[in-house]
Amino acid sequence: MSQRIDKWLWAARFFKTRALAAQAVNGGKVHVDGERVKPARTLQPGDRLRITRGHETREVIVRGFNEQRRPAAEAQGLYEETPESRARRESDAEQRRLLRAAMPRTEHRPDKRQRRHIRRFLGK
Question: What is the third-level CATH fold of 3-89?
Answer without folding.
Answer: 3.10.290
